[in-house]
Amino acid sequence: MTNQTQTDDGAIVLPAHECWDLLSSATLGRLVTSVDGRPQIFPVNYAVQRRTILFRTAPGTKLVSAAINNEVVFEVDDHNVAGGWSVIVRGTARSLRSDEEIADAQRAQVLPWTTSEKSHYVRVIPEMVTGRRFQFGSPPREQSIHI
What we know:
By secondary structure, the protein is an alpha+beta fold. The protein has one domain: Electron Transport, Fmn-binding Protein, Chain A (Pnp Oxidase, Chain A, Roll), CATH 2.30.110. Helix content is 18%, strand content 45%. The chain has 3 helices and 8 strands, in the order E-E-H-E-E-E-H-E-E-H-E. It has helices at 16-25, 61-68, 99-106; strands at 5-6, 12-13, 28-35, 38-48, 53-57, 71-79, 83-95, 120-135. A 6-stranded antiparallel barrel has the order 3-4-5-8-7-6.
């Protein structure tokens, strides 16, 4: 059993290894960066490779903003009828350029979901990984006050 902490709102704070297990179990996340000083969010399909986040992208706003504002946030979540979880990775985005880096990234088999060419690989190197697990349900009933 893992040593888990419960927050005031009933969420369970997850240890880093469980966050990475959850990240590895999903393929769709959200990249949060800044464009012209304003926050932007981009859905991306991704893979976990050696405790980093790896995704492919086409030339454009996502690639440029990740390169210019290399401090990013990456979020992944999932749920079912009983509960859900959310993992947030704060880190640095790096566009991969060398043949060796690209060959390594290709081994992760991040396949584009669309027909557009996504020839650029970006790796998010984590500085902080946090996660929470939630159980769905009704809040506790407030006690009635009878006068």
